[in-house]
Amino acid sequence: MRIFVLFKNYCMNIPIYLDNNATTPMDPRVLDAMLPYFTNKFGNAASRNHHFGWVAEEGVDYAREQVAKLIGASEKEIIFTSGATESDNLAIKGVFEMYKDKGNHIITAVTEHKAVLDACKHVEKLGGRVTYLPVKEDGLVDLAVLEAAMTPETILVSIMYGNNEIGVIQPVKEIAAIAHRHGALFMTDATQAVGKIPVDVNADGIDLLALSAHKMYGPKGVGALYVRRKGPRVKVTAQMDGGGHERGMRSGTLNVPGIVGLGKACEIAGQEMESEAKRLSGLRDKLQNALTVLEESYVNGNVDHRLPHVANISFKYVEGEGLMMAMKDLAVSSGSACTSASLEPSYVLKSLGLSDDLAHSSIRFGLGRFTTEEEVDYAIEVTKKAVTHLRELSPLWEMFKEGIDLNSIEWAEH
Amino acid sequence: MAYSDKVIDHYTNPRNVGTLDKSSHKVGTGLVGAPECGDVMRLQIQVDDNNIITDAKFKTFGCGSAIASSSLATEWLKGKSVDDAMKIDNMDIVEELALPPVKIHCSVLAEDAIKAAINDFRVKNGMEPIELEKSHH
Q1: Is B16 inside a domain boundary?
Q2: What ipTM score was computed for the predicted complex, to two decimals?
Q3: How far apart are CA B113 and CA A106, in angstroms?
Q4: Is B17 an interface residue toward A (CB < 8 Å)?
């Protein structure tokens, strides 16, 4: 249940949502665009011979243009899916199946989303070979390491655009150039980036791109895969068989209201991206600067190549889940193990070379379109208080303050 | 997963946070867990001449359940004899705090911390440490 509190003469809803990398609230303008397609315009977009089908198809066609425009593509290159996970799967498994006579090697990175990593694991079971590139301490792929990993067998390089946990933006253009020079296709999971920063498939040299509606104020359960049609013409083997929808690449009756919502979300994002990125990076920097004033707090990932709305900060000597509990007025996320079913801390943070205890101490703040400055001010206050409170409880903080080197302690097996 | 009211209560108002003089022979200190695992508990007991625990303090680095488990442990320890303290079982903590299965390790850690503190006290006072059951982990 959400409650209202008065903070500095400003009435706000508690808890405050600062987890916009997990999902975003839907923009009311998107909902308005979708509603008719649930009721009056309910037709099946594949019904080619009556009014209801035509109306639905028109909605889908328009959405296809809206999505294409946001990423500089042509509408024929957009395949609608159920979301970015499906798009990642279709791209990776589909490219492998389509091009396996040409080569069986795929390159990706250890910080990719599980949808990419697990699709790659599947490809390995089918006889493919996958290289998982390490990343530098700042989370970026080392281009020389990528170059060295390329082989004549490499058919696909799949590197995400912006990272979901730390927000770092990969040098996509340079990565694409390396892939192309070696005759491989370049795919990017751009779920976190599309709608937040300019993404242009031609300028960036992208052959396949996965995106999702619910990360950009659209509905859940709908996304798209961009598949290049010219220079080169890319094909993927369908992973869902049936009526041959979406040029045979993805069968299944189209989710018309969802697709219309995705289109509208893309249109709004395109119009507001520039001013919104400026506003959000301003708020994010305010939050980050205020919190890194606290002793022993560290920003994770490259801060110069980063999505405008994300800050991932480790507060040393406090544990992330315990911290989140003290910040219950804020909805944020932690790289700590305790928040997930597995007891391992975030693999993304660990791959930056962060020690486990720092990974356990991390909090991801994800601002969004509906985040206000007052909410950020409140978040700063709540977080500072929580960190201070938990450090008073922390034996590690006490040891640190006494000058004891924690590495010198023989910790009990656990 | 929502926390039980008792966890929230101990987390919000932790009992007996603090530090006892670990160099005193009346004080036993148990430090268990590891920063890498996301849980470290330090539990201390002060024991009088009648073998009664007169004070207990803790500090914990960990999730809400870990903090609540150690807070509860200090409450239970105060006033108990060392022998009775040895009998505190992690499942008693699980039950009292209604910990879900994924948080049982927090209670195990609290039990380990109690035993480690008692053994530290025993060794300091010339007694043999009590052989502990194999760790639950």
Answers
A1: yes
A2: 0.90
A3: 48
A4: yes
